[in-house]
Specification:
alpha/beta, Rossmann fold, 6-stranded mixed beta sheet, 4-stranded antiparallel beta sheet, 6 helices, 10 strands, disordered C terminus
Length: about 200
């Protein structure tokens, strides 16, 4: 039987149901908690390899010398994608609200970079990493993620995106959230128990 990333996510308890406040500020009734999935090294390694295979499948002449991921969510999958591509993997952190490379990480001018995230919802973090990479004189070539849960997959992220799983999950602005209107309180994932799907 072939690799089924959606089944891996489900078996790891990474697909949650409840009332969630997303990092984008939107609300949702489902959440992908990739940390539950990536806590299993064999699943993380398999996902990193699968992303590398999909990148080469859609871009046969693809070659990068570094992977850059937004911390914290993209850190593990970025590392595993870097391992599969045999390149170094680094992560960004926020300083005074701005994405930055710290801890001795650096990029050379002209260096070709892959941006890797765990989940893409609005693409905001990915676009911030793209801007950072470009500001350092390097060249971001593509983005990759485990789960693409954008409402509009035709939305321009500034780079091609390769994902292992596409999920259609509704998001609402807080003032339009039916769960809030029903009297429910949104929780940030991880702050309270949720029900695996």
């Amino acid at each position: 039987m072939g690799y089924n990333p959606l089944q891996d996510l489900k078996s790891a308890g990474a697909l949650l149901e409840g009332h969630f406040l997303l990092s984008s500020g939107l609300h949702s009734n489902r959440y992908v908690q990739c940390a539950c999935y990536l806590q299993h090294p064999h699943l993380a390694e398999r996902a990193g390899r699968a992303l590398a295979v999909r990148l080469f499948g859609s871009h046969p002449h693809f070659s990068v010398s570094a992977v850059v991921s937004p911390a914290l969510g993209g850190l593990i999958i970025g590392h595993e994608a870097g391992r599969a591509l045999d390149v170094r993997a680094m992560f960004t952190e926020r300083r005074d609200g701005e994405m930055t490379l710290r801890r001795g990480f650096s990029l050379k001018p002209g260096e070709r970079v892959l941006i890797v995230e765990d989940v893409v919802t609005t693409g905001k973090s990915g676009r911030e990493v793209i801007e950072l990479v470009r500001s350092l004189g390097a060249e971001p070539l593509a983005m990759a993620c485990i789960v693409d849960r954008r409402e509009d997959r035709k939305q321009d992220l500034g780079l091609p995106l390769v994902s292992l799983v596409n999920l259609d999950i509704e998001n609402w602005r807080p003032e339009l959230c039916p769960l809030c209107k029903a009297g429910g309180e949104a929780v940030k994932p991880g702050s309270r128990a949720s029900t695996p799907l």
